[in-house]
DNA sequence: TTCAAGTTGTACGATATACGTACGCTATTT
DNA sequence: AAATAGCGTACGTATATCGTACAACTTGAA
């Protein structure tokens, strides 16, 4: 997408190639890539080795990376980049007390996410016991089509946006319940749109089910979703729908009101 | 520090100026700078306006920023930069269950931070009720000298490292109890070193007190600190020290063992 | 041992990249 | 109407950035 010829921003004088490449290097580090050599980074990013080296050394110089006998790792300072977003955006801290309230009542985890391309990104999370194999935190990304929050967010896209999403989509079968074709997904989204909530049962991971509702701004546009996720062996689909869903809806109602009260023009 | 003449990394061919500048722009966004114009960013960073513009447009193109009638804001995608660190470092997710356990027992918030220059950076946090005026989250920075975790981390620096820290220090008086001179700080650190825990009473903010203990790796080196913070009107200093401190020490002991068990060479 | 394949650093010349100055435009304020 | 402050952009320059190429080193296999 960013490499095709139609992409002419890069040909304007406004494109900063080095910044793009530097951010690519930061993102090369992940769950599977904890510590990387210069050559590793070069391979992952497609940058030449000297370029990868220069970027890594610069990140080290700036305190965002550390090198120890040839292996580079990111430092906690990298977190402050993400925190630049959180602290410049008080929207989610408004939601926190209501999320805590929900967690106290139900004993289960509660999260808020927004759509970013084909992924949802967690922007707020209050977790109780750990139930997933991977650790979820603010900043985590998950594929939208396999999550309840993703369904809620996708269901509220415009037809054009949904079309774009569908065209950029690759299905991966996480479990045997994972949605893996467009027809199935479109049907699910239709249901979500009608009932105004979404539920996913072990489509992302065995033993994990969740339920989600949209968060709307003052003008009614959906810009985020909030969910409750629980262990499938402990919480039935019925409990999730009949007991937790009303609480979730109630919490979101309060959050919307609190956000409207702060008059945050960003989401009007 | 990074602008003086002795700083010769910048004169090597390994320094990538544009990346440095781009990261500066991201960090220009903060609590007080939620939405910035091109000129704002230019002033804050000291970059020329066209340069600031090129970087902002590149960030927008890459999806890390959004522009709406002249005002730029960061997007949630920025979080994924910080998450690149978290997901490439499983150290803190090991600590989470023990932190949750502590929070359940005490009902108060629990955090882990590491030292980054003169600041502590939060790398893990389980919060209960909100007690501070600013919202703390993973990625938050606070000045080390005004926090209990900061004291614990500073107390365990080598004399040379502490010397460097002291030389780069500017005291700010947050409350009338804030430590504001080197002698006082050094004395406090001496006490912390001897008792192996630190406590801060309303030095960062009125009505907030906390207590912290060091987290050591297998070879005994302190690389992080864990604390419990509470509302001063609700939890006395004595409760904090006599009831919560032992629980905190117990939790840290378990965390150290769990980390050692994973054989994480990064912290040996 | 020797060879091959992997890593690393770095020199260097080419040029694409990024830069800041300068200018013209618009909007708001005084 | 003048002044201020924001904006975009053209442009020529300079330099920052690039990739190729080469040398040194390590490791493991033959």
TrEMBL record, chains A, B:
**Which part of the chain is the HTH iclR-type domain?**
16-76
User: Which Gene3D superfamilies is this protein grouped with?
Assistant: 3.30.450.40, Winged helix-like DNA-binding domain superfamily/Winged helix DNA-binding domain
Check the record and name the Pfam families matching this protein.
HTH_IclR, IclR_C
Q: Output the PROSITE patterns linked to this UniProt entry.
A: HTH_ICLR, ICLR_ED
| GO BP term, pick one | negative regulation of DNA-templated transcription
Record domain IclR-ED: where: 77-261
Q: What is this protein called?
A: IclR family transcriptional regulator
């Amino acid at each position: 997408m960013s490499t095709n010829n139609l992409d002419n921003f890069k040909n304007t004088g406004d494109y900063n190639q080095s910044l793009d490449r530097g951010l690519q290097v930061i993102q090369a580090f992940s769950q599977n890539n904890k510590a990387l050599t210069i050559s590793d980074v070069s391979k992952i990013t497609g940058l030449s080795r000297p370029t990868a080296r220069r970027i890594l050394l610069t990140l080290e110089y700036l305190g965002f990376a550390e090198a120890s006998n040839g292996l580079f790792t990111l430092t906690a300072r990298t977190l402050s980049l993400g925190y630049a977003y959180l602290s410049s955006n008080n929207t989610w801290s408004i939601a926190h007390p209501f999320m805590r309230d929900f967690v106290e009542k139900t004993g289960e985890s509660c999260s808020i996410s927004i759509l970013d391309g084909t992924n949802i990104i967690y922007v707020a999370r209050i977790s109780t016991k750990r139930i997933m194999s991977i650790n979820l935190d603010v900043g985590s990304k998950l594929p939208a089509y396999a999550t309840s929050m993703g369904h809620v967010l996708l269901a509220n896209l415009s037809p054009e946006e949904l079309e774009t999403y569908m065209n950029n989509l690759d299905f991966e079968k996480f479990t045997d319940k994972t949605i893996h074709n467009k027809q199935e997904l479109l049907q699910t989204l239709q249901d979500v749109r009608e009932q105004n909530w979404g539920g996913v049962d072990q489509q992302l991971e065995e033993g994990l089910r969740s339920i989600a509702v949209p968060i709307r701004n003052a003008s009614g546009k959906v810009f985020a979703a909030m969910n409750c996720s629980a262990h499938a062996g402990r919480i039935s689909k019925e409990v999730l729908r009949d007991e937790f869903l009303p609480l979730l809806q109630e919490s979101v109602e309060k959050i919307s009101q609190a956000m409207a009260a702060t008059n945050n023009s960003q989401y009007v």
